[in-house]
Amino acid sequence: MSEAKKKYISVGIDDFGKLITGEYYFVDKSLLIKELLDSRAAVTLVPRPRRFGKTLNMSMIQCFFEKTDQTKSRRPLFNGLKIEQYSDCMEHQGKYPVIWLTFKDVKMDTWGPCYEKICKLIGVEFSRHFDNIKSVLSEFELQRVEAIISGTATQALYEDSLLDLSIYLERAHNAKVIVIIDEYDAPIHAAYLKGYYQEVIGFMRGFLGAGLKGNNALNFSIMTGILRVAKESIFSGINHLEVRTLLQQDYSDKFGFLESEVIAMLDFFGLDNKLDDVRRWYDGYQSGKHKVYNPWSIINLVKNRGEYQAYWVNTSDNALIKDLLKRCTPEMKEDLEVLITGGKVTKPIQENIIMLDIEKNDEVLWNFLVFSGYLTFENYRLVVDTNYAELLIPNVEVGTTYKTSFRAWFAEGSGMRNYTRMIDSLVAGEMEPFQDHFMKFTRETLSTFDIRGDEPERFYHALVLGMFGSLMQTHDIRSNRESGYGRYDVMLIPKDRSKPGIIIEFKKARPKESLKTASQNALKQVEERQYETELRALGLKKILKLGISFKGKESLVLVG
Q1: What is the mean pLDDT of residues 131-158?
Q2: Residues 207 and 284 in one domain
Q3: Residue 438, domain extent
Q4: In angstroms, rounded to a whole number, what is the distance separating the alpha carbons of residues 450 and 458?
Q5: Is residue 4 part of a domain?
Q6: 243 pairs with which residues across the strands?
Q7: CA distance readout (Å), 24 to 7, 15, 59, 65, 158
Q8: Which of 192, 214, 243 is the last residue of a domain?
Q9: SS3 track for 362-424
Q10: Which SS3 state, helix, strand or coil, does residue 323 take?
Q11: d(CA 257, CA 55)
């Protein structure tokens, strides 16, 4: 522990005032305020992955700008912070009415409760300002405000509420309003998963459109979320919207921890000898020209005295990502194999995400994975009229998400138990039990891959990815996609060289071809291409060659 004044470590505290007054360790991101003022943007959207400090930063912005009773001045909260060095910025402290809304907990199963919660959040914000605005309201306006606070207003009134509250606040304070909206897209993610996407989009389009487009009471607005939801979906007509994603330089060092900030924090809490492992586990996110760490993971690591865990991936339900990965095309699964083994894939980058296109379009899904933090990027560049980048898994922590997702595919019914038995018999070199388990497993599990005729191809893509997840501790796994009939070449190289090396060739049987012939052809290909040469060069004495063929839900394993 550093000799400096003792500080506590916070987990889950995203209230700036509480963090500072409670003497918690704070990574100073206050120059975000200067950057925001210097930008002079009317409406700014800063999308970042979850748990990247968005809510805390928005709370800090509220504490800085919001006009308060003189007896409750927030000016002391900024004593000693970097922003204090800029007198021109400090002149803005405590000068403006602020509307503050966070949608981060609006994640309901149906539209009804979602709408109720949004209305309640709006009502709470009106109530927070009620004492300041009531004296400037007409009788008609007062009735509207009371209806919003009580939850009895019409949907049209709630959609206009951001604009209306702005007008009332400007009138009451004789100053234009700052609007802060945190995690604006949380309801949209939930709606996409649960089937009420159009209802949420319709409401948010009206709510944000009225409040941010042509609002003469607005000074400026800043919003956060995970994605830039396509302009035509929500931001139609907001022509002055400036979006600053991970791809841009603006704000690139204000969300996520820089390495210098991580080093200082580890040193303060006596964990400075762990930097190399911390890098491997939690570093690697590209943000503009910076590499940043996930703040949530670092804070939890320090709280747990240096214990490495997948803190970020365990923070909330990964249902969406698991569902999308299960549905992705065979071509995308090939690329995922490359990524899981530490490789990179080159893809076009598109910042606008239309949620409804994620399932239909691999390019949209790749971009979703980047902007939600499940992948990162390198070498972002423009080629003719399209932006490209190399995509990769940022660190060990995120890599665990993919492994657990792929294993979970086989957890339906008795699939996981049979899958485990099948893998155990395979790596042990016990071929008869493996043949029995494999053929039973494919019959039971292929029915869960609802792919209309491409089941075998998708299934053995998933099987290989499952192997990556379950065998990476004990084996190096190499996979090489070949042309024609979905053929796969898979090689399992045991780290313990006394164990058998395994070569697997998958074949989809032609329409008039028997399973036996297809499996024999797979084994023949292993021999002709001399795949065992690589294993022999590594000193492996025992090598197993398997030819596995599929036709519908039937399969056949032959051992060469």
Answers
A1: 96
A2: no
A3: 409-559
A4: 10
A5: no
A6: 45
A7: 5, 11, 15, 22, 37
A8: 243
A9: HHHHHHHHHHCCCCEEEEEEEECCEEEEEEECCCHHHHHHHHHHHHHCCCCCCHHHHHHHHHH
A10: helix
A11: 15
479: which strand partners? 490
Are both 510 and 427 inside the same structural domain? Answer: yes
Give me 85's structure tokens.
């060095």
Within a domain: 201: yes
Query: Do 374 and 414 lie in a common domain?
Result: no
53 φψ region: left (φ > 0), alpha (ψ -120 to 50), beta (else): left
In a domain, 3, yes or no: no
Question: Are the C-beta atoms of 81 and 30 separated by less than 8 Å?
Answer: yes
CA dihedral 396, 398, 402, 404 (to 10 degrees): 80
Please state the separation of Cα 507 from the chain's center in Å: 35
Indicate whether 446 and 495 sit together in one domain. yes
Angle at 455 between CA 450 and CA 460, to 5 degrees: 120
For residue 214, what are its two tokens? 């042509």
Tally of structural domains, the chain: 4
- Mutual angle of helices 396-408 and 455-471, in 10-degree steps: 130
Q: How far is CA 134 from the centre of its chain?
A: 42
**Contact, 515 vs 541, CB < 8 A?**
no
Sheet with 257-258: list strands edge to edge: 257-258, 290-293, 285-287
* Three-class DSSP category at 53: coil
pLDDT digits (tens, 9 = 90+) for 54-109: 999 999 999 999 999 877 899 999 999 999 999 999 999 999 999 999 999 999 99
196 and 98, same structural domain? yes
Both tokens of 520, joined, read 């024999």
Residue 71, C-beta contacts closer than 8 angstroms, at least 6 positions apart: none
201/133 same-domain check: yes
- Looking at the DSSP bridge assignments, the partners of residue 102 are 182
Task: Output the CA–CA distances (angstroms, integers) from residue 556 to 90, 409, 429, 519, in the order listed.
Answer: 74, 22, 17, 7
Instruction: Say yes or no: 298 and 324 in one domain.
Output: no
| Nearby residues of 198 by Cβ (< 8 Å), 6 or more positions away | none
Enter the DSSP assignment of 446: G
Residue that finishes a domain, picked among 367, 399, 431: 399
Q: CA angle 40-45-47, nearest 5°?
A: 140
Lowest mean pLDDT among 20-29, 234-243, 256-265: 234-243
Domain shared by 351 and 414, yes or no:
no
Tokens, residue 211: 């409040």
Place of tokens 């951001």: 162
- 253: its two tokens: 């060092």
Q: How far apart are alpha carbons 244 and 507 in whole angstroms?
A: 47
pLDDT score of 483? 37
C-alpha of 531 from chain center = 38
Report pTM: 0.85
Do residues 359 and 325 touch, judged by C-beta distance below 8 A?
Answer: no
> In whole angstroms, what separates CA 59 from the centre of its chain?
22
Residue 481 lies in a domain: yes
On whether the CB atoms of residues 410 and 372 are closer than 8 A, the answer is no
